[in-house]
């Protein structure tokens, strides 16, 4: 089975050092930022570059859209039903306002966002969504059939002559199925082993990512723009945490921290979580999109915060220390239980316990040097991510309660 190429070979395709946006079929929404009356407009060099982000209502996608709009790009996104557009726009507007944007600036950003109806289970809509785009971002972890979906997106991107596709894969394709080894450090060169210990959801992601690499490697040279092949970059994040945009919770919304707050876990499994902030992951998407072909094309990038994975007991301790009243009200647990007890509980209980077994066991250490060295990525400390996640989840709950 083929693996992702390394630094020397780029079967994912190569392109000129400076990728140029190809002329859009429609004029960009804004060629300059809008400012209050009397102030000169500032040209926006990125407005003529069209970027598609699939599944705009998702946890990762919505944050990426926000990053791209703030950077001045003209963004398209897909949703299963256009009825979702209003909710996504509302969440983005709230985030822009919270970040300090005045109404005029927020409106300017959102005018560069257009929605398309396209379902990952169908070919309909993808050609229109990608027409005139230079880049495509696709999160293949937020789908029940990731292999079929990623091949559909790549096929449409090839037909639309997209320069570069950035895929969100997962650490699930790197660090699972291996013999237990607490001293091992996983990198992008590792692949999960497809054996009986690999959970079904991890297996489907592993098959999907391998299929994506094989698809791009089979493309003939000269089949893409500039006489080169369409480029592929894959990001492999560990557990994704961080603040949730208002009203845009999804199946990939932070779960372990949510379970500490909602009473799912009355005791603490011996669990260590690899962690990356969704804001840092969005930054990495943009860096992977804009980097030179030598730095990113045809490569995988492991997305994880610096240092060792964080223990669940450490997260609970941080909540009790920084938010003592909340910890008391939510009965955040302080007692740890051994792995055998957690595994036994998973066999007879529902909720989050069913997902525990593959996460238990030795710590899975990671190395993020490739993203740091080649793309200049700088993730924030895990402690900041933990507390921002807690505050965000509580704020979302309070907002929902206020609407009832």
TrEMBL record:
Entry keyword annotation includes Lipoprotein: no
Annotated keywords: Oxidoreductase
Transmembrane segments: none
Listed Gene3D superfamilies: NAD(P)-binding Rossmann-like Domain
Residue span of region Disordered: 1-48, 348-371
InterPro entries in the cross-refs: Epimerase_deHydtase, NAD(P)-bd_dom_sf, NAD(P)_dehydrat-like
NAD-dependent epimerase/dehydratase domain location: 51-301
Entry similarity comment: Belongs to the NAD(P)-dependent epimerase/dehydratase family. Dihydroflavonol-4-reductase subfamily.
Protein name stated in the entry: NAD-dependent epimerase/dehydratase domain-containing protein
Species whose genome carries this gene: Sporothrix stenoceras
Taxon lineage: Eukaryota, Fungi, Dikarya, Ascomycota, Pezizomycotina
């Amino acid at each position: 089975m083929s693996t992702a190429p390394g630094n020397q070979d780029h079967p994912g395709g190569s392109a000129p050092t400076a990728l140029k946006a190809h002329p859009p079929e429609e004029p960009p929404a804004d060629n300059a930022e809008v400012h209050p009356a009397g102030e000169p407009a500032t040209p926006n060099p990125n407005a003529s570059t069209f970027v598609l982000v699939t599944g705009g209502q998702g946890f990762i996608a919505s944050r990426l859209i926000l990053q791209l709009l703030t950077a001045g790009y003209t963004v398209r996104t897909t949703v299963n039903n256009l009825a979702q557009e209003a909710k996504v726009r509302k969440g983005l507007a709230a985030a822009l306002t919270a970040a300090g944007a005045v109404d005029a600036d927020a409106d300017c950003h959102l005018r560069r966002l257009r929605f398309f109806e396209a379902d990952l289970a169908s070919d309909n809509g993808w050609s229109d969504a990608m027409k005139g785009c230079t880049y495509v971002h696709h999160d293949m972890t937020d789908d029940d059939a990731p292999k079929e979906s990623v091949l559909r997106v790549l096929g449409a991107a090839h037909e639309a002559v997209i320069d570069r596709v950035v895929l969100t894969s997962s650490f699930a394709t790197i660090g699972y199925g291996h013999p237990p080894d607490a001293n091992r450090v996983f990198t992008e060169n590792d692949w999960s082993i497809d054996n009986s210990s690999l959970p079904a959801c991890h297996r489907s992601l592993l098959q999907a990512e391998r299929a994506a690499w094989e698809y791009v490697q089979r493309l003939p040279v000269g089949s893409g723009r500039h006489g080169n092949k369409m480029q592929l970059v894959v990001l492999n994040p560990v557990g994704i945490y961080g603040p949730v945009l208002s009203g845009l919770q999804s199946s990939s919304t932070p779960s372990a921290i949510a379970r500490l707050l909602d009473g799912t876990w009355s005791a603490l499994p011996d669990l260590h979580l690899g962690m990356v902030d969704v804001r840092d992951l969005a930054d990495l998407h943009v860096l992977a999109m804009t980097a030179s072909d030598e730095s990113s094309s045809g490569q995988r990038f492991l997305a994880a915060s610096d240092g060792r994975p964080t223990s669940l007991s450490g997260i609970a301790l941080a909540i009790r220390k920084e938010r003592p009243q909340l910890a008391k009200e939510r009965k955040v647990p302080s007692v740890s239980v051994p792995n055998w007890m957690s595994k036994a509980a998973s066999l007879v209980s529902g909720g989050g316990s069913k997902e525990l077994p593959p996460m238990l066991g030795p710590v899975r250490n990671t190395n993020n040097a490739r993203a740091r060295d080649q793309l200049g990525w700088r993730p924030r400390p895990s402690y900041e991510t933990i507390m921002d996640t807690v505050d965000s989840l509580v704020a979302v709950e309070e907002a929902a309660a206020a609407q009832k």
